[in-house]
Amino acid sequence: MLNQLLKKLIRTETHSGRNTMAMTGLFVAMLLILSAVQIQSNYQQILYNKTSQDSIADFLVINKTITDQNVGDATLSDTEINDLKQQSFVEKIGRLTPSRFRVGVQSVSKQIPFYSDFFFESVPNEFLDVNTPDWKWDETSNFIPMIIPNMFLDMYNFGFAQSQHLPQLSQDLIKNLPVQIDIQTQNGIVNYYGKVVGFSDRISSVLVPQTFMDWANNKFGTNVNQQPSRVIIQTKDASSPQLTEYLAKHHLSTNPEKTRFEKYRGVINIVVITSWVMGGLMLLFALLIFTLFIQLTIASSKEEIILLITLGTSPIQLQRFLRKQYLPTSIIVIIVAICIVSIVQFALQKVLVAQNIFVQSFLSVYTIGAAVIVLFILTVVNNRTIMRYIQYDD
């Protein structure tokens, strides 16, 4: 009964245009703020999510940049490797051990004849992206296991095979195709059999087990220089500005495709900052309109409010009534904004998963938390405004 009387006496509809303007400003502000928080959350998840199939973002093969000054001397010294190891962006570091002997590989099949000079490298097992029980070797082994880059197979299938009228090969067929490995020594050529046991997207060279490499270099090696020319590092963030700055400063390089997120970081930061600034300005605009709207509502109903207080209505009842006029609408606006951002996030997740980039299909807790914080700020500002002017009229 009292609420119906208050609705008739306190005319909140008189300035409905300003109320609509305030709600529109609040809605736009919420979209911008929630989008900024969710974009940042998605970006962090892409970088650090362990389920992401973009594993090359965590492992980088690093070598010296070849210049006219260091041609023929591009190896990495122990001092350089240890300095790199001490950097905050490096979690693990491993040396790529090159073969110090000449190697030739040829097919044992007449249907797919080929011969090529090759080179081998080895790397500690913890840096491999292939897990197979065949990855082991000792002097009694029947074959030398090899891991080759996927791009080698692509180059053969879509380049060499077509130009030479040779059959294209699948991964399974390659794994079942033995090859002859010819190692040139001072006493002639020593023959071994090799077998491809896996394909790597991480290291762009033909890998053999470390045990074979150490044994073969000791037995057949002709180069006394045992320093590596390449190392592999594991890093939490391949797009770290500190990493790219360090590489440039020390004249080191890696595959730029693997640090491509560093290019996106600046763009994303600009988008996030712009969304935050615009969202903050829109929120301030909405709060200002709300405050003015409450003041105008109270001012236009000043005589009615004085009459109600004279008749015994407490200021607390009036304050509670006015809160109910604004809080539910504000909650609805914020919920609608959350729903819209949720729909966009769900659609974005479907698009990204097709690119092997994984983010959550639902909003992050930080986005929901941002909405709660904005609602809290809005409630506090409105409550203080109502209490101030109702007490004044009292």
Describe the structure.
This protein is an alpha+beta fold and 394 residues long. The chain folds into two domains: 2-53 and 263-393, no CATH class; 59-235, no CATH class. Helix content is 52%, strand content 15%. The chain is built from eleven helices and eleven strands. The strands form two sheets. Strands 9-5-2-10-1-11 form a six-stranded mixed β-sheet. It has a five-stranded mixed β-sheet with strand order 4-3-7-8-6. A hairpin with a 2-residue loop joins strand 7 (179-185) and strand 8 (188-200). The longest helix has 40 residues, at 261-300. The radius of gyration is 34 Å and the shape is elongated.
C-alpha Rg (nearest Å): 34 Å
Number of helices: 11
**What's the story with the biggest beta sheet?**
6 strands, mixed
Order of neighbouring strands in the sheet with most strands: 9-5-2-10-1-11
Count of distinct strands = 11
Strand content: 15-25%
**What is the overall shape?**
elongated
The rounded distance between the terminal residues' Cα atoms is 22 Å
Number of domains: 2
Show unreliable segments. 53-57
Structural class: alpha+beta
In sequence order, what are the helices and strands, one letter per element?
HHEHEEEEEHHEEEHEHEHHHH
What's the rounded overall pLDDT mean? 80
Helical proportion, percent range: 40-55%
